[in-house]
Amino acid sequence: MKVTSFVSLSLLAGTLQAATIHTKVAILGGGVSGISASLNLTLAGIDDFVLIEARDVLGGRAQDVKFGHNVTIEMGCNWVQALGTNPINLLSQKYNMKTVPTDYEDIDYIDHHGRHVNGSKEQQAFSDASDRMYEQALKRAKNNLVDISSRTALSLAGWIPRTPLEKAIEYFGYDWESGEDPERSSDVFGILNDEANYNGKFGHDLEGDRMNIDQRGFKYMFLQEAERVFKKKNDPRLKLGTTVKSIAYDKKGVTITTDKDTIIADYAISTFSVGVLQHRDVEWKPELPDWKMEGIFGFHLTTYTKIFMNFDRQFWSDHEFTLYAHPTSRGLFSVWQNLNAPGYFPKGTKDNVFMVTVTQDYAHMVEAMTDEQVKDQLMATLRKMYPDETIPEPTDFKFPRWHSDPLFRGSYSNWPIGEVDQHHENMKAPLHNRVFFAGEAMSKDYYGYLQGGWVAGEEAAISVVQCIKKKKCPVATYYPEIVNAKMKGNTVLKKRAYIE
Ligand SMILES: Cc1cc2nc3c(=O)[nH]c(=O)nc-3n(C[C@H](O)[C@H](O)[C@H](O)COP(=O)(O)OP(=O)(O)OC[C@H]3O[C@@H](n4cnc5c(N)ncnc54)[C@H](O)[C@@H]3O)c2cc1C
Ligand SMILES: *[C@@H]1O[C@H](CO)[C@@H](O)[C@H](O)[C@H]1NC(C)=O
Ligand SMILES: *[C@@H]1O[C@H](CO)[C@@H](O)[C@H](O)[C@H]1NC(C)=O
Ligand SMILES: *[C@@H]1O[C@H](CO)[C@@H](O)[C@H](O)[C@H]1NC(C)=O
């Protein structure tokens, strides 16, 4: 990294030096993907790079805060999902993170009248249908059949929810994981993602997600990894509190303009979320090509919003989950988590935290409301859920607004129906072998998860290392046009059969 020139800008308060910095690689974004890319460059012996992050801290969507008297809560990612050699699981072990297994069947069901009921029959029916759907989707993928929505797939598997309880069970089993409803989600790609995470390279049958309850915060392990790269305090290569405004690229290199300085790099690795790319929060010069934008706009970044309430006493059950079958609105304030479950918070904690999650439209809805309005709605819901209780006012209340945040624009990606393989390849394809794309959404196998971000960062770095060391980048391809299955000459037409 070389600082070559200074231009003085007069500001109201004084003079700011706007520098032009020359470097080999600019890593854009300091979430897990940017950290992983910087680590991989370092391990490959490349130290001439900068990492630019708008926030004052690394970690991106791994974000914890102190809440109540003194507990750490996770506003973003919370689980190690898929064990085995999943790099996230390995990091969790390396740093001895305190995690607990999650028992997704440990549920207190509350029906739409506020009665505690036994939902195990409905739960079993949903779980059996999900298993059938899984098998069918793998067959579909193997036989190269056209994708269908997860709603169609669930219906074909015999699951047709009718009651509020059945809808709540489905919401918990589907949306609460995928971040979006089965109507918008791809059946085939969704199941392939499950298969890659839980039954692929990391090992087989890796069920048993572990929730981070480490009071150092989940991001601790990523910050530790970043310290392997940025060993010295105030390493000038780490540019925190610096926002990228525009990225100009051509065959010769990349010029990045930030709110502080200009960075001229041979290569750039963008790790911005697909939501940031969709919302045009960063300017591209020239504009990203249409074939790429079609893939980007077609993908989904969901919003998964955890709302935390702290009370001076626990009036809910000891189960890990409480599932409320909302009488009118599927998924509204339905999935509640007891953060006081045995073994979660440190002994002697004075806080009683009940957390509810909303996704998709309801997540957008709460973001547009004031905290006070959301709190009122939640109190009204709790009174319906526990008609015989006097519900105390919460002593603390907090939730993040992921969707409106221009640095994120949502929580994690979901593969929607309508996006095909080629779209995803186009979304990820580099620009002139100068700008490479990482971030969780770009991982075809592990999108949506921390490992998606980690692996995509590593892959982009490996490409850049090859460009630098071999003076020749890996061969990259894209699809200028994506044609549909009914094109002439396509075997699909030949498969027409007679009704007998
Ligand atoms: C609520 C929630 C729950 C989740 N739960 C889980 C879970 O349990 N398990 C799991 O595996 N995954 C989970 N995830 C997903 C996981 O957190 C992400 O996959 C992962 O953190 C993404 O990392 P990334 O580096 O790809 O992206 P980010 O973390 O988004 O990193 C991109 C970085 O770019 C920065 N940036 C953006 N714009 C600019 C700009 N203009 N200039 C400079 N910097 C900029 C951002 O500040 C950010 O730090 C969850 C996410 C959320 C939000
Ligand atoms: C980094 O890249 C190398 C190849 O250059 C690879 O072998 C390695 O596993 C990658 N990841 C890490 C974390 O080193
Ligand atoms: C808060 O919690 C942390 C970690 O659990 C602990 O180290 C610290 O002493 C606590 N502080 C107070 C004021 O209780
Ligand atoms: C719910 O019903 C099932 C049988 O359908 C039974 O095995 C289970 O123990 C019941 N659960 C509770 C919590 O009563």
List the helices and strands and how they pair.
Layout (H helix, E strand, L loop, with lengths): L1 E10 L2 E15 L3 H12 L5 E4 L11 E4 L3 E4 L4 E2 L6 H8 L4 E3 L5 E4 L5 E2 L2 H23 L7 H7 L7 H10 L1 H4 L8 H12 L11 E3 L7 H10 L8 E2 L4 E7 L2 E6 L3 E9 L3 H5 L4 E3 L4 H9 L1 E2 L2 E8 L9 E4 L10 E4 L13 E8 H8 L3 H15 L10 E3 L14 E2 L6 H8 L6 E3 L12 H20 L21 H4 L6
Helix pairs in contact: 1-8, 1-14, 3-4, 3-5, 3-7, 10-13
This protein binds flavin-adenine dinucleotide (FAD) and 2-acetamido-2-deoxy-beta-D-glucopyranose (3 copies).
Flavin-adenine dinucleotide (FAD) binds next to helix 1 and helix 14.
List the keywords.
single chain, 31% helix, 7-stranded mixed β-sheet, 9-stranded mixed β-sheet, 15 helices, 500 residues, binds 2-acetamido-2-deoxy-beta-D-glucopyranose, globular, binds flavin-adenine dinucleotide, Amino_oxidase, alpha/beta, 22% strand, FAD/NAD(P)-binding domain
Into which percentage range does the β-strand content fall?
15-25%
Pick out the low-confidence regions. 7-15
Largest sheet: 9 strands, mixed
Bound molecules: flavin-adenine dinucleotide, 2-acetamido-2-deoxy-beta-D-glucopyranose
> What is the total tally of β strands?
23
For the record, the CATH architecture of the domain at 2-60 and 219-299 and 409-499 stands as 3-Layer(bba) Sandwich
**What is the arithmetic mean of pLDDT?**
95
Give the overall shape, derived from the CA principal axes. globular
- Helix proportion of residues, in percent? 25-40%
Instruction: Give the class-level CATH name of the domain at 2-60 and 219-299 and 409-499.
Output: Alpha Beta
The first-to-last residue Cα distance is 72 Å
Q: Could you name the CATH homologous superfamily of the domain at 2-60 and 219-299 and 409-499?
A: FAD/NAD(P)-binding domain
Number of helices: 15
Radius of gyration: 24 Å
Helix and strand composition category: alpha/beta
CATH topology of the domain at 2-60 and 219-299 and 409-499, by name, is FAD/NAD(P)-binding domain
